[in-house]
Amino acid sequence: MKLQFTLNGKSRELEVNPAKRLLDILREDLGLTGTKEGCGEGECGSCTVLLDDKPVLSCLTTALHINGHKVTTIEGLAEDGELEGLQTAFVEETAIQCGFCTPGMIMSSKALLMNNSNPSEEEIRAALAGNICRCSGYSQIIRAVKRAAEES
Ligand code: FES
Ligand code: FES
Predict the structure, then answer these.
(1) For residue 43, how far is its CA from the centre of ligand 1 (angstroms)?
(2) Which position among 4, 23, 71, 85 has the lowest Cβ density within 10 Å, counted as fewest Cβ atoms?
């Protein structure tokens, strides 16, 4: 199929199998390796991106799902070389250890803050419930999201 969609603000066209995973389109076809593959079966959240500003697992999303829609990845957050507020807050709160979960955590947090500019700790925990951090950095991650909300 000819896939047409908007990726990080730019219109893209690509010839792909309609069943191809968004995760593979991003990493293999477009070279956007910021989105990570952990489990590959919808359990870890490391592959989270935004589809029309809602968080989705790109390992469970196909070309068909994104045709005609808007996709935002971690690469689409920084502007003019400046980190976006959540990215800065994750760095400053040392919410990154190995960093493998970080793009997914930030994209889920981004979706939360787009709908709720002042989330409670419970709301942050609920929004990140599908994102697993194997380095146990959860308290720093919650602090980073709160900080980004306060500073935005
Ligand atoms: S790689 Fe998609 S949820 Fe784990
Ligand atoms: S920082 Fe290592 S998995 Fe979260």
Answers:
(1) 6
(2) 4
Query: Helix, strand, or coil here: 69?
Result: coil
What does the alpha-carbon distance between residue 118 and residue 145 come to, in Å, rounded to a whole number? 10
Q: Which two tokens stand for residue 15?
A: 């010839």
CA distance 69 to 107: 17
Provide residues with CB under 6 Å of ligand 1: 37-40, 42-47, 57, 59
Q: Is 134 in the pocket of ligand 2 (CB under 6 A)?
A: yes
Q: What is the distance in A from the centroid of ligand 1 to the CA of 50?
A: 14
Query: 0.90 exceeded by the pTM?
Result: yes
